[in-house]
Amino acid sequence: VTTRFYNFNVELANVTKLCQKKAIVTVNGLYPGPTVYAQEGDRVIVKVTNLVAHNVSLHWHGVRQVLSCWFDGPAYVTQCPIQAGESFTYEFTLHEQKGTLWWHAHVHWLRATVHGAMVIYPTTGTPYPFPFPHAEHVIILGEFWLKDAVSIEASTMRSGGGPPSPDAFVLNGHPGSSYPCSAQDMFSVMDVIPGRTYLLRLINAALNNEHFFILAKHKLTVVEADGEYTLPYTTDAVVITPGQTLNVLVTANQPPADYLMGMTAYASNPNIPVLTIPALALWRYEQIMPEHIETGGILLHRPLFPLNNDTAFVSNFSQNIRSFPTVYNHVKVPHNIDRNLFFTIGLNEETCDTDHASQCKGPNGGRFSASINNITFQLPHTVSLLQAYHCGTKKDSIPIFTTNFPDKPVEKFDFVSAAPNDPPNNTQSLVGTRVNVIEFGANVQIVLQNTGIIGSENHPIHLHGYSFYVVGMGEGDYNPFTATLNLRDPPLRNTIGVPAGGWAVIRFKADNPGVWYLHCHLEIHTSWGLAMAFIVENGVGSLQTLPPPPADLPHC
Ligand code: C2O
Protein backbone atom coordinates (compact mmCIF):
# COMPACT_ATOMS: atom_id res chain seq x y z
CA VAL A 1 0.00 0.00 0.00
CA THR A 2 1.39 3.32 -1.09
CA THR A 3 0.31 6.54 0.54
CA ARG A 4 -0.39 9.39 -1.86
CA PHE A 5 -0.14 12.77 -0.20
CA TYR A 6 -1.62 15.92 -1.68
CA ASN A 7 -1.83 19.52 -0.49
CA PHE A 8 -4.95 21.27 -1.74
CA ASN A 9 -5.07 25.01 -1.18
CA VAL A 10 -8.49 26.42 -1.92
CA GLU A 11 -7.64 29.83 -3.32
CA LEU A 12 -8.72 32.47 -5.80
CA ALA A 13 -7.19 32.57 -9.25
CA ASN A 14 -7.76 34.91 -12.17
CA VAL A 15 -8.96 33.46 -15.44
CA THR A 16 -9.84 35.15 -18.70
CA LYS A 17 -12.82 33.53 -20.39
CA LEU A 18 -15.45 34.78 -22.84
CA CYS A 19 -13.70 38.15 -23.20
CA GLN A 20 -13.70 38.81 -19.45
CA LYS A 21 -11.19 38.48 -16.66
CA LYS A 22 -12.48 37.27 -13.31
CA ALA A 23 -11.38 35.62 -10.08
CA ILE A 24 -12.68 32.11 -9.46
CA VAL A 25 -12.31 29.75 -6.51
CA THR A 26 -9.84 26.99 -7.39
CA VAL A 27 -7.63 24.35 -5.85
CA ASN A 28 -3.95 25.34 -6.15
CA GLY A 29 -4.85 27.99 -8.73
CA LEU A 30 -5.95 25.35 -11.28
CA TYR A 31 -9.23 25.12 -13.19
CA PRO A 32 -10.11 22.29 -13.34
CA GLY A 33 -8.23 21.34 -10.21
CA PRO A 34 -5.29 18.92 -9.88
CA THR A 35 -5.75 15.24 -10.73
CA VAL A 36 -5.31 12.79 -7.86
CA TYR A 37 -3.33 9.79 -9.13
CA ALA A 38 -3.32 6.55 -7.15
CA GLN A 39 -3.41 2.80 -7.48
CA GLU A 40 -6.10 0.41 -6.30
CA GLY A 41 -5.70 -0.20 -2.57
CA ASP A 42 -3.66 2.96 -1.93
CA ARG A 43 -4.10 5.28 0.99
CA VAL A 44 -4.90 8.84 -0.08
CA ILE A 45 -4.23 11.77 2.22
CA VAL A 46 -5.28 15.24 1.10
CA LYS A 47 -4.67 18.22 3.34
CA VAL A 48 -7.20 20.89 2.38
CA THR A 49 -6.53 24.46 3.47
CA ASN A 50 -9.22 27.04 2.92
CA LEU A 51 -7.77 30.38 1.79
CA VAL A 52 -11.02 31.91 0.52
CA ALA A 53 -13.98 33.61 2.18
CA HIS A 54 -16.42 30.76 1.40
CA ASN A 55 -16.79 27.72 3.63
CA VAL A 56 -15.48 24.63 1.83
CA SER A 57 -15.75 20.86 1.97
CA LEU A 58 -14.55 18.34 -0.61
CA HIS A 59 -16.26 15.11 -1.65
CA TRP A 60 -14.46 12.18 -3.31
CA HIS A 61 -17.20 11.23 -5.72
CA GLY A 62 -17.44 7.46 -6.12
CA VAL A 63 -14.95 6.60 -3.36
CA ARG A 64 -16.87 4.21 -1.13
CA GLN A 65 -15.19 5.43 2.06
CA VAL A 66 -15.34 2.02 3.69
CA LEU A 67 -15.37 2.73 7.44
CA SER A 68 -14.24 6.31 6.70
CA CYS A 69 -17.54 8.15 6.42
CA TRP A 70 -16.02 11.12 8.31
CA PHE A 71 -14.01 11.90 5.16
CA ASP A 72 -16.85 11.68 2.65
CA GLY A 73 -17.26 15.45 2.53
CA PRO A 74 -20.86 16.63 1.94
CA ALA A 75 -21.24 19.74 4.09
CA TYR A 76 -23.53 19.29 7.11
CA VAL A 77 -24.04 15.61 6.27
CA THR A 78 -20.71 14.10 7.30
CA GLN A 79 -18.83 17.20 8.41
CA CYS A 80 -19.11 20.89 9.06
CA PRO A 81 -17.38 22.78 6.26
CA ILE A 82 -13.82 24.05 6.59
CA GLN A 83 -13.95 27.70 7.53
CA ALA A 84 -11.74 30.43 6.10
CA GLY A 85 -8.16 30.02 7.25
CA GLU A 86 -8.70 26.48 8.55
CA SER A 87 -7.49 23.07 7.33
CA PHE A 88 -8.85 19.56 7.36
CA THR A 89 -7.03 16.43 6.22
CA TYR A 90 -9.02 13.83 4.30
CA GLU A 91 -7.69 10.27 4.65
CA PHE A 92 -9.11 7.19 3.02
CA THR A 93 -8.18 3.90 1.40
CA LEU A 94 -9.17 2.94 -2.14
CA HIS A 95 -10.44 -0.54 -1.21
CA GLU A 96 -11.06 -2.50 -4.40
CA GLN A 97 -11.53 0.69 -6.37
CA LYS A 98 -9.97 1.61 -9.66
CA GLY A 99 -10.78 3.63 -12.73
CA THR A 100 -11.88 7.20 -13.18
CA LEU A 101 -13.57 8.94 -10.28
CA TRP A 102 -13.46 12.59 -9.33
CA TRP A 103 -13.55 15.05 -6.46
CA HIS A 104 -15.54 18.24 -6.04
CA ALA A 105 -16.57 20.86 -3.51
CA HIS A 106 -19.75 19.80 -1.72
CA VAL A 107 -21.14 23.02 -0.32
CA HIS A 108 -23.49 25.41 -2.13
CA TRP A 109 -22.48 25.71 -5.81
CA LEU A 110 -18.72 25.90 -5.27
CA ARG A 111 -18.18 22.78 -7.32
CA ALA A 112 -18.76 24.92 -10.42
CA THR A 113 -15.02 25.61 -10.37
CA VAL A 114 -13.72 23.43 -7.53
CA HIS A 115 -13.42 19.96 -9.05
CA GLY A 116 -10.87 17.59 -10.54
CA ALA A 117 -10.23 14.03 -11.62
CA MET A 118 -9.15 10.97 -9.62
CA VAL A 119 -7.31 8.43 -11.74
CA ILE A 120 -6.89 5.09 -10.00
CA TYR A 121 -4.80 2.49 -11.78
CA PRO A 122 -5.33 -1.23 -11.20
CA THR A 123 -2.81 -3.02 -8.98
CA THR A 124 0.48 -3.83 -10.66
CA GLY A 125 0.18 -6.95 -12.78
CA THR A 126 -3.60 -6.65 -13.22
CA PRO A 127 -4.27 -5.86 -16.87
CA TYR A 128 -7.26 -3.92 -18.18
CA PRO A 129 -9.90 -6.16 -19.79
CA PHE A 130 -9.24 -4.26 -23.04
CA PRO A 131 -6.15 -3.42 -25.11
CA PHE A 132 -3.70 -1.19 -23.29
CA PRO A 133 -4.09 2.33 -24.70
CA HIS A 134 -1.22 4.22 -26.29
CA ALA A 135 -2.05 7.30 -24.18
CA GLU A 136 -4.85 8.60 -22.02
CA HIS A 137 -6.49 11.96 -21.44
CA VAL A 138 -8.80 13.24 -18.73
CA ILE A 139 -11.62 15.33 -20.22
CA ILE A 140 -13.86 17.12 -17.74
CA LEU A 141 -17.19 18.40 -19.02
CA GLY A 142 -18.16 21.55 -17.16
CA GLU A 143 -20.09 24.78 -17.16
CA PHE A 144 -18.62 28.23 -16.88
CA TRP A 145 -20.41 31.16 -15.27
CA LEU A 146 -19.34 34.76 -15.56
CA LYS A 147 -21.12 35.51 -12.29
CA ASP A 148 -20.12 33.87 -9.03
CA ALA A 149 -21.89 30.48 -8.94
CA VAL A 150 -22.54 30.70 -5.19
CA SER A 151 -24.39 34.00 -5.63
CA ILE A 152 -26.33 32.55 -8.58
CA GLU A 153 -27.59 29.83 -6.27
CA ALA A 154 -28.58 32.40 -3.66
CA SER A 155 -30.46 34.58 -6.14
CA THR A 156 -32.18 31.60 -7.77
CA MET A 157 -33.35 30.43 -4.37
CA ARG A 158 -34.64 33.92 -3.58
CA SER A 159 -36.58 34.18 -6.83
CA GLY A 160 -38.15 30.74 -6.57
CA GLY A 161 -37.65 30.35 -10.32
CA GLY A 162 -35.55 28.04 -12.46
CA PRO A 163 -31.77 28.31 -12.73
CA PRO A 164 -30.19 30.54 -15.35
CA SER A 165 -28.13 28.93 -18.09
CA PRO A 166 -24.37 28.89 -17.71
CA ASP A 167 -22.47 31.30 -19.95
CA ALA A 168 -20.53 28.50 -21.60
CA PHE A 169 -19.97 24.80 -21.64
CA VAL A 170 -16.32 23.91 -21.20
CA LEU A 171 -14.02 20.95 -21.80
CA ASN A 172 -11.24 21.00 -19.20
CA GLY A 173 -12.16 24.62 -18.53
CA HIS A 174 -12.02 25.68 -22.20
CA PRO A 175 -15.13 26.77 -24.15
CA GLY A 176 -13.51 26.44 -27.58
CA SER A 177 -14.07 28.18 -30.84
CA SER A 178 -17.89 28.52 -30.86
CA TYR A 179 -17.78 31.04 -28.03
CA PRO A 180 -16.74 34.69 -28.18
CA CYS A 181 -13.02 35.40 -27.64
CA SER A 182 -12.44 31.66 -27.21
CA ALA A 183 -10.82 30.47 -30.44
CA GLN A 184 -7.52 30.23 -28.57
CA ASP A 185 -9.21 28.95 -25.43
CA MET A 186 -9.58 25.43 -26.74
CA PHE A 187 -8.45 22.22 -25.12
CA SER A 188 -6.60 20.00 -27.56
CA VAL A 189 -5.28 16.49 -27.82
CA MET A 190 -2.41 16.89 -30.28
CA ASP A 191 -0.23 14.52 -32.23
CA VAL A 192 -2.54 11.58 -32.31
CA ILE A 193 -0.71 8.75 -34.06
CA PRO A 194 -2.65 6.95 -36.82
CA GLY A 195 -3.62 3.45 -35.82
CA ARG A 196 -3.12 3.92 -32.07
CA THR A 197 -5.85 3.59 -29.44
CA TYR A 198 -6.44 6.25 -26.80
CA LEU A 199 -8.29 6.17 -23.51
CA LEU A 200 -10.47 9.18 -22.72
CA ARG A 201 -11.52 9.56 -19.10
CA LEU A 202 -14.72 11.59 -19.29
CA ILE A 203 -16.20 13.26 -16.20
CA ASN A 204 -19.39 15.30 -16.12
CA ALA A 205 -18.76 18.03 -13.56
CA ALA A 206 -21.50 20.35 -14.91
CA LEU A 207 -23.87 21.77 -12.32
CA ASN A 208 -27.18 21.55 -14.09
CA ASN A 209 -26.94 19.79 -17.45
CA GLU A 210 -26.68 16.30 -18.80
CA HIS A 211 -24.43 16.06 -21.82
CA PHE A 212 -23.61 14.33 -25.05
CA PHE A 213 -19.95 13.92 -25.94
CA ILE A 214 -18.78 13.12 -29.44
CA LEU A 215 -15.62 13.09 -31.57
CA ALA A 216 -16.14 13.81 -35.28
CA LYS A 217 -15.96 10.70 -37.51
CA HIS A 218 -14.61 8.45 -34.73
CA LYS A 219 -16.36 5.70 -32.82
CA LEU A 220 -16.26 5.70 -29.04
CA THR A 221 -16.09 2.41 -27.15
CA VAL A 222 -17.30 2.61 -23.56
CA VAL A 223 -15.24 0.27 -21.36
CA GLU A 224 -15.88 1.65 -17.88
CA ALA A 225 -18.60 3.62 -16.13
CA ASP A 226 -18.28 5.19 -12.66
CA GLY A 227 -15.04 3.32 -12.03
CA GLU A 228 -16.32 -0.17 -12.92
CA TYR A 229 -15.57 -2.09 -16.10
CA THR A 230 -18.42 -2.48 -18.57
CA LEU A 231 -19.01 -4.78 -21.51
CA PRO A 232 -17.42 -2.83 -24.37
CA TYR A 233 -20.09 -0.81 -26.17
CA THR A 234 -19.27 1.06 -29.37
CA THR A 235 -21.29 4.14 -30.27
CA ASP A 236 -21.12 7.48 -32.12
CA ALA A 237 -21.87 9.55 -29.02
CA VAL A 238 -21.98 9.02 -25.28
CA VAL A 239 -24.39 10.41 -22.72
CA ILE A 240 -23.09 11.45 -19.36
CA THR A 241 -25.10 12.95 -16.52
CA PRO A 242 -23.63 15.16 -13.79
CA GLY A 243 -21.67 13.00 -11.37
CA GLN A 244 -20.98 10.19 -13.82
CA THR A 245 -17.67 9.17 -15.33
CA LEU A 246 -17.10 7.13 -18.49
CA ASN A 247 -13.90 5.67 -19.88
CA VAL A 248 -13.98 5.36 -23.63
CA LEU A 249 -11.46 4.00 -26.12
CA VAL A 250 -10.92 5.76 -29.43
CA THR A 251 -8.82 4.35 -32.24
CA ALA A 252 -7.20 6.95 -34.47
CA ASN A 253 -8.32 5.27 -37.68
CA GLN A 254 -9.34 8.28 -39.76
CA PRO A 255 -7.28 10.17 -42.37
CA PRO A 256 -4.80 12.49 -40.61
CA ALA A 257 -6.50 15.86 -40.23
CA ASP A 258 -8.13 17.97 -37.52
CA TYR A 259 -11.23 16.66 -35.82
CA LEU A 260 -13.37 18.44 -33.28
CA MET A 261 -14.62 16.83 -30.10
CA GLY A 262 -17.57 18.40 -28.44
CA MET A 263 -20.19 18.44 -25.73
CA THR A 264 -23.79 19.63 -26.00
CA ALA A 265 -26.62 19.54 -23.53
CA TYR A 266 -29.26 16.83 -23.46
CA ALA A 267 -32.64 18.37 -22.64
CA SER A 268 -34.76 15.63 -21.04
CA ASN A 269 -37.66 18.06 -20.93
CA PRO A 270 -37.96 19.77 -24.32
CA ASN A 271 -39.84 22.66 -22.69
CA ILE A 272 -36.88 23.65 -20.56
CA PRO A 273 -34.47 25.61 -22.73
CA VAL A 274 -30.79 24.66 -22.64
CA LEU A 275 -27.70 26.43 -23.86
CA THR A 276 -27.22 25.14 -27.41
CA ILE A 277 -23.66 26.27 -28.16
CA PRO A 278 -21.32 23.27 -27.99
CA ALA A 279 -18.00 23.32 -26.20
CA LEU A 280 -15.38 22.19 -28.69
CA ALA A 281 -11.91 20.73 -28.37
CA LEU A 282 -9.37 19.66 -30.95
CA TRP A 283 -8.14 16.16 -31.79
CA ARG A 284 -5.22 16.55 -34.13
CA TYR A 285 -3.31 13.84 -35.93
CA GLU A 286 0.43 14.23 -36.16
CA GLN A 287 1.99 15.06 -39.53
CA ILE A 288 -0.17 18.15 -39.85
CA MET A 289 2.22 21.05 -40.13
CA PRO A 290 1.59 23.93 -37.73
CA GLU A 291 1.80 26.52 -40.52
CA HIS A 292 -1.42 25.14 -41.91
CA ILE A 293 -3.32 26.31 -38.84
CA GLU A 294 -3.19 30.01 -39.77
CA THR A 295 -4.03 29.50 -43.42
CA GLY A 296 -7.12 27.53 -42.53
CA GLY A 297 -5.97 24.90 -44.97
CA ILE A 298 -6.27 21.87 -42.70
CA LEU A 299 -9.29 19.77 -43.20
CA LEU A 300 -11.44 20.29 -40.12
CA HIS A 301 -14.13 17.75 -39.33
CA ARG A 302 -16.99 18.95 -37.16
CA PRO A 303 -19.02 16.61 -34.97
CA LEU A 304 -22.63 15.83 -35.78
CA PHE A 305 -24.39 15.97 -32.44
CA PRO A 306 -27.58 14.13 -31.57
CA LEU A 307 -30.51 16.53 -31.22
CA ASN A 308 -30.72 18.20 -27.80
CA ASN A 309 -33.96 16.35 -27.08
CA ASP A 310 -33.01 12.93 -28.48
CA THR A 311 -34.42 10.89 -25.61
CA ALA A 312 -34.52 7.71 -27.71
CA PHE A 313 -30.76 7.92 -28.14
CA VAL A 314 -30.28 8.44 -24.40
CA SER A 315 -32.41 5.50 -23.31
CA ASN A 316 -30.81 3.23 -25.88
CA PHE A 317 -27.40 4.30 -24.61
CA SER A 318 -28.27 3.53 -20.97
CA GLN A 319 -29.71 0.13 -21.89
CA ASN A 320 -26.40 -0.78 -23.47
CA ILE A 321 -24.27 -0.17 -20.39
CA ARG A 322 -23.77 -3.62 -18.84
CA SER A 323 -21.26 -4.87 -16.32
CA PHE A 324 -18.17 -6.69 -17.46
CA PRO A 325 -18.30 -10.29 -16.11
CA THR A 326 -15.58 -9.69 -13.50
CA VAL A 327 -17.73 -6.96 -11.96
CA TYR A 328 -20.88 -8.94 -11.27
CA ASN A 329 -18.95 -12.09 -10.49
CA HIS A 330 -16.94 -10.28 -7.88
CA VAL A 331 -19.68 -8.41 -6.03
CA LYS A 332 -22.86 -10.41 -6.38
CA VAL A 333 -26.09 -8.72 -7.36
CA PRO A 334 -28.39 -8.99 -4.30
CA HIS A 335 -31.27 -11.38 -5.03
CA ASN A 336 -33.15 -11.50 -1.73
CA ILE A 337 -34.22 -8.06 -0.62
CA ASP A 338 -34.42 -7.13 3.08
CA ARG A 339 -35.46 -3.51 2.62
CA ASN A 340 -37.68 -2.59 -0.28
CA LEU A 341 -37.94 1.17 -0.66
CA PHE A 342 -40.07 3.15 -3.07
CA PHE A 343 -38.91 6.74 -3.56
CA THR A 344 -40.77 9.28 -5.65
CA ILE A 345 -38.37 11.91 -6.91
CA GLY A 346 -39.29 15.12 -8.61
CA LEU A 347 -40.03 18.79 -8.59
CA ASN A 348 -43.01 20.38 -6.96
CA GLU A 349 -44.23 23.91 -6.40
CA GLU A 350 -44.76 25.76 -3.17
CA THR A 351 -47.04 28.70 -2.60
CA CYS A 352 -45.06 31.87 -2.47
CA ASP A 353 -45.07 33.65 0.86
CA THR A 354 -47.30 36.67 0.48
CA ASP A 355 -44.60 39.26 1.17
CA HIS A 356 -42.70 38.12 -1.88
CA ALA A 357 -45.54 36.86 -4.04
CA SER A 358 -44.92 39.32 -6.85
CA GLN A 359 -41.30 38.21 -7.16
CA CYS A 360 -41.94 34.50 -7.27
CA LYS A 361 -40.83 33.05 -10.59
CA GLY A 362 -42.16 29.50 -10.32
CA PRO A 363 -44.31 28.07 -13.10
CA ASN A 364 -47.67 28.94 -11.52
CA GLY A 365 -46.57 31.97 -9.54
CA GLY A 366 -45.16 29.94 -6.68
CA ARG A 367 -41.65 28.79 -5.99
CA PHE A 368 -39.87 25.70 -7.24
CA SER A 369 -39.14 23.01 -4.74
CA ALA A 370 -38.14 19.36 -5.00
CA SER A 371 -38.66 16.32 -2.87
CA ILE A 372 -38.22 12.60 -2.30
CA ASN A 373 -41.35 10.85 -1.02
CA ASN A 374 -42.87 14.32 -0.70
CA ILE A 375 -40.22 15.41 1.80
CA THR A 376 -38.11 18.41 0.88
CA PHE A 377 -34.75 17.84 2.52
CA GLN A 378 -33.27 20.53 4.67
CA LEU A 379 -29.61 20.42 5.72
CA PRO A 380 -28.79 21.20 9.33
CA HIS A 381 -26.34 24.07 9.86
CA THR A 382 -25.00 23.75 13.38
CA VAL A 383 -23.58 20.25 13.34
CA SER A 384 -23.36 17.51 10.72
CA LEU A 385 -25.81 14.62 10.69
CA LEU A 386 -22.95 12.21 11.26
CA GLN A 387 -21.67 14.12 14.28
CA ALA A 388 -25.17 14.30 15.71
CA TYR A 389 -25.69 10.60 15.14
CA HIS A 390 -22.30 9.64 16.53
CA CYS A 391 -22.63 11.72 19.68
CA GLY A 392 -26.26 10.89 20.39
CA THR A 393 -27.22 8.15 22.72
CA LYS A 394 -30.88 8.14 21.80
CA LYS A 395 -30.97 9.20 18.20
CA ASP A 396 -34.66 10.01 18.18
CA SER A 397 -34.12 12.65 20.82
CA ILE A 398 -31.55 14.56 18.79
CA PRO A 399 -33.32 17.65 17.57
CA ILE A 400 -31.42 18.24 14.33
CA PHE A 401 -32.89 15.24 12.50
CA THR A 402 -35.60 12.65 12.82
CA THR A 403 -35.38 9.03 11.72
CA ASN A 404 -38.82 8.93 10.13
CA PHE A 405 -37.91 9.28 6.46
CA PRO A 406 -40.65 7.10 4.96
CA ASP A 407 -40.03 3.93 2.95
CA LYS A 408 -42.85 5.03 0.62
CA PRO A 409 -44.32 8.43 -0.30
CA VAL A 410 -46.22 10.22 2.46
CA GLU A 411 -49.78 9.08 1.86
CA LYS A 412 -51.67 12.33 2.06
CA PHE A 413 -50.20 13.43 -1.25
CA ASP A 414 -50.77 11.73 -4.53
CA PHE A 415 -47.33 12.28 -6.01
CA VAL A 416 -46.63 8.90 -7.47
CA SER A 417 -47.61 9.46 -11.07
CA ALA A 418 -44.98 9.90 -13.72
CA ALA A 419 -47.49 11.55 -16.03
CA PRO A 420 -46.58 15.19 -16.52
CA ASN A 421 -50.10 16.36 -17.32
CA ASP A 422 -51.79 14.96 -14.28
CA PRO A 423 -50.62 17.02 -11.30
CA PRO A 424 -52.28 16.58 -7.91
CA ASN A 425 -54.36 19.43 -6.47
CA ASN A 426 -51.82 19.99 -3.75
CA THR A 427 -48.29 20.33 -5.11
CA GLN A 428 -46.68 21.24 -1.80
CA SER A 429 -44.27 19.01 0.06
CA LEU A 430 -43.33 18.64 3.71
CA VAL A 431 -40.02 20.18 4.75
CA GLY A 432 -37.69 18.44 7.13
CA THR A 433 -34.40 16.81 8.00
CA ARG A 434 -35.44 13.19 8.01
CA VAL A 435 -33.19 10.18 7.60
CA ASN A 436 -33.94 6.55 6.86
CA VAL A 437 -32.21 3.98 9.08
CA ILE A 438 -30.95 0.75 7.54
CA GLU A 439 -29.71 -2.22 9.52
CA PHE A 440 -26.10 -3.18 8.81
CA GLY A 441 -25.80 -5.79 6.08
CA ALA A 442 -29.33 -5.48 4.70
CA ASN A 443 -29.86 -6.02 0.99
CA VAL A 444 -31.58 -2.83 -0.16
CA GLN A 445 -33.68 -2.21 -3.24
CA ILE A 446 -34.81 1.31 -4.11
CA VAL A 447 -37.37 1.94 -6.81
CA LEU A 448 -36.78 5.51 -7.96
CA GLN A 449 -40.00 6.79 -9.50
CA ASN A 450 -39.65 10.05 -11.38
CA THR A 451 -42.79 12.14 -10.93
CA GLY A 452 -44.42 14.66 -13.23
CA ILE A 453 -45.98 17.01 -10.69
CA ILE A 454 -44.69 20.05 -12.50
CA GLY A 455 -43.15 19.00 -15.75
CA SER A 456 -40.75 16.12 -15.88
CA GLU A 457 -37.00 15.98 -16.08
CA ASN A 458 -34.26 13.38 -15.75
CA HIS A 459 -32.77 13.15 -12.27
CA PRO A 460 -29.19 11.92 -11.93
CA ILE A 461 -29.45 10.27 -8.52
CA HIS A 462 -26.17 9.81 -6.66
CA LEU A 463 -25.69 7.68 -3.55
CA HIS A 464 -22.70 8.31 -1.31
CA GLY A 465 -20.78 5.44 0.28
CA TYR A 466 -21.84 2.74 -2.17
CA SER A 467 -21.94 1.67 -5.75
CA PHE A 468 -25.26 0.09 -6.66
CA TYR A 469 -26.49 -2.21 -9.37
CA VAL A 470 -28.94 -0.60 -11.77
CA VAL A 471 -31.18 -3.64 -12.25
CA GLY A 472 -33.98 -1.97 -14.18
CA MET A 473 -35.19 1.13 -15.90
CA GLY A 474 -38.33 1.99 -17.80
CA GLU A 475 -40.97 4.46 -18.85
CA GLY A 476 -44.14 5.47 -17.05
CA ASP A 477 -45.10 4.23 -13.59
CA TYR A 478 -43.11 1.36 -12.11
CA ASN A 479 -45.15 -1.80 -11.93
CA PRO A 480 -43.59 -4.65 -9.92
CA PHE A 481 -45.60 -7.23 -11.88
CA THR A 482 -44.51 -6.17 -15.34
CA ALA A 483 -41.08 -4.62 -14.77
CA THR A 484 -38.24 -6.79 -16.06
CA LEU A 485 -35.16 -6.69 -13.87
CA ASN A 486 -31.68 -7.61 -15.02
CA LEU A 487 -30.02 -9.61 -12.25
CA ARG A 488 -27.48 -11.07 -14.65
CA ASP A 489 -25.16 -8.25 -15.76
CA PRO A 490 -26.51 -4.91 -14.49
CA PRO A 491 -24.03 -2.01 -14.38
CA LEU A 492 -22.52 -1.10 -11.02
CA ARG A 493 -22.70 2.69 -10.72
CA ASN A 494 -22.73 5.53 -8.22
CA THR A 495 -24.99 7.90 -10.20
CA ILE A 496 -27.94 6.98 -12.36
CA GLY A 497 -30.04 9.20 -14.62
CA VAL A 498 -33.62 8.31 -13.72
CA PRO A 499 -35.54 9.05 -16.93
CA ALA A 500 -38.13 11.80 -17.16
CA GLY A 501 -41.54 10.17 -16.85
CA GLY A 502 -39.96 6.86 -15.88
CA TRP A 503 -38.25 4.85 -13.15
CA ALA A 504 -35.07 3.01 -12.23
CA VAL A 505 -34.43 0.23 -9.72
CA ILE A 506 -31.15 0.01 -7.83
CA ARG A 507 -29.80 -2.60 -5.41
CA PHE A 508 -26.91 -2.64 -2.95
CA LYS A 509 -25.84 -4.36 0.25
CA ALA A 510 -25.71 -1.90 3.15
CA ASP A 511 -22.40 -3.08 4.55
CA ASN A 512 -20.69 0.26 5.12
CA PRO A 513 -21.77 2.07 8.29
CA GLY A 514 -22.22 5.82 8.31
CA VAL A 515 -24.52 8.60 7.22
CA TRP A 516 -24.83 8.57 3.46
CA TYR A 517 -26.34 11.28 1.33
CA LEU A 518 -28.59 10.44 -1.63
CA HIS A 519 -29.41 13.32 -3.92
CA CYS A 520 -29.98 14.58 -7.42
CA HIS A 521 -26.67 15.65 -8.95
CA LEU A 522 -28.34 18.55 -10.75
CA GLU A 523 -27.19 21.16 -8.29
CA ILE A 524 -30.34 23.26 -8.45
CA HIS A 525 -32.45 20.22 -7.56
CA THR A 526 -30.30 19.53 -4.49
CA SER A 527 -30.72 23.19 -3.50
CA TRP A 528 -34.47 22.73 -3.85
CA GLY A 529 -34.37 19.71 -1.55
CA LEU A 530 -34.19 16.64 -3.83
CA ALA A 531 -32.10 14.79 -1.27
CA MET A 532 -32.26 12.54 1.77
CA ALA A 533 -29.79 10.64 3.92
CA PHE A 534 -29.45 7.06 5.10
CA ILE A 535 -28.01 5.98 8.41
CA VAL A 536 -26.45 2.58 7.96
CA GLU A 537 -25.99 1.29 11.47
CA ASN A 538 -22.76 -0.10 12.87
CA GLY A 539 -22.33 -3.82 12.48
CA VAL A 540 -21.25 -6.32 15.07
CA GLY A 541 -17.55 -6.49 15.77
CA SER A 542 -14.90 -3.84 15.36
CA LEU A 543 -14.36 -4.42 11.65
CA GLN A 544 -17.72 -3.07 10.66
CA THR A 545 -17.88 -0.26 13.18
CA LEU A 546 -17.22 3.31 12.16
CA PRO A 547 -14.19 4.64 14.07
CA PRO A 548 -14.53 7.90 16.06
CA PRO A 549 -14.15 11.26 14.29
CA PRO A 550 -10.70 12.63 13.39
CA ALA A 551 -9.29 15.23 15.78
CA ASP A 552 -9.25 18.02 13.19
CA LEU A 553 -12.90 17.58 12.13
CA PRO A 554 -14.18 21.13 11.50
CA HIS A 555 -16.73 22.76 13.80
CA CYS A 556 -19.67 24.73 12.49
CU1 C2O B 1 -20.79 14.22 -6.54
CU2 C2O B 1 -23.06 14.36 -3.19
O1 C2O B 1 -21.94 14.40 -4.86
Automatic annotation (TrEMBL):
<dbReference type="Pfam" id="PF00394">
    <property type="entry name" value="Cu-oxidase"/>
</dbReference>
<protein>
    <recommendedName>
        <fullName>Laccase</fullName>
        <ecNumber>1.10.3.2</ecNumber>
    </recommendedName>
</protein>
<keyword id="KW-0677">Repeat</keyword>
<dbReference type="InterPro" id="IPR034288">
    <property type="entry name" value="CuRO_1_LCC"/>
</dbReference>
<dbReference type="InterPro" id="IPR011706">
    <property type="entry name" value="Cu-oxidase_C"/>
</dbReference>
<keyword id="KW-0439">Lignin degradation</keyword>
<keyword id="KW-0964">Secreted</keyword>
<dbReference type="InterPro" id="IPR034289">
    <property type="entry name" value="CuRO_3_LCC"/>
</dbReference>
<keyword id="KW-0052">Apoplast</keyword>
<comment type="function">
    <text>Lignin degradation and detoxification of lignin-derived products.</text>
</comment>
<keyword id="KW-0479">Metal-binding</keyword>
<feature type="domain" description="Plastocyanin-like">
    <location>
        <begin position="405"/>
        <end position="538"/>
    </location>
</feature>
<dbReference type="InterPro" id="IPR002355">
    <property type="entry name" value="Cu_oxidase_Cu_BS"/>
</dbReference>
<keyword id="KW-0560">Oxidoreductase</keyword>
<keyword id="KW-0732">Signal</keyword>
<dbReference type="InterPro" id="IPR011707">
    <property type="entry name" value="Cu-oxidase-like_N"/>
</dbReference>
<feature type="domain" description="Plastocyanin-like">
    <location>
        <begin position="136"/>
        <end position="286"/>
    </location>
</feature>
<keyword id="KW-0186">Copper</keyword>
<comment type="similarity">
    <text>Belongs to the multicopper oxidase family.</text>
</comment>
<dbReference type="InterPro" id="IPR045087">
    <property type="entry name" value="Cu-oxidase_fam"/>
</dbReference>
<dbReference type="InterPro" id="IPR017761">
    <property type="entry name" value="Laccase"/>
</dbReference>
<dbReference type="GO" id="GO:0046274">
    <property type="term" value="P:lignin catabolic process"/>
</dbReference>
<dbReference type="InterPro" id="IPR008972">
    <property type="entry name" value="Cupredoxin"/>
</dbReference>
<dbReference type="InterPro" id="IPR001117">
    <property type="entry name" value="Cu-oxidase_2nd"/>
</dbReference>
<dbReference type="Pfam" id="PF07731">
    <property type="entry name" value="Cu-oxidase_2"/>
</dbReference>
<dbReference type="GO" id="GO:0005507">
    <property type="term" value="F:copper ion binding"/>
</dbReference>
<dbReference type="GO" id="GO:0052716">
    <property type="term" value="F:hydroquinone:oxygen oxidoreductase activity"/>
</dbReference>
<dbReference type="Pfam" id="PF07732">
    <property type="entry name" value="Cu-oxidase_3"/>
</dbReference>
<dbReference type="InterPro" id="IPR033138">
    <property type="entry name" value="Cu_oxidase_CS"/>
</dbReference>
<feature type="domain" description="Plastocyanin-like">
    <location>
        <begin position="10"/>
        <end position="123"/>
    </location>
</feature>
<dbReference type="InterPro" id="IPR034285">
    <property type="entry name" value="CuRO_2_LCC"/>
</dbReference>
<dbReference type="GO" id="GO:0048046">
    <property type="term" value="C:apoplast"/>
</dbReference>
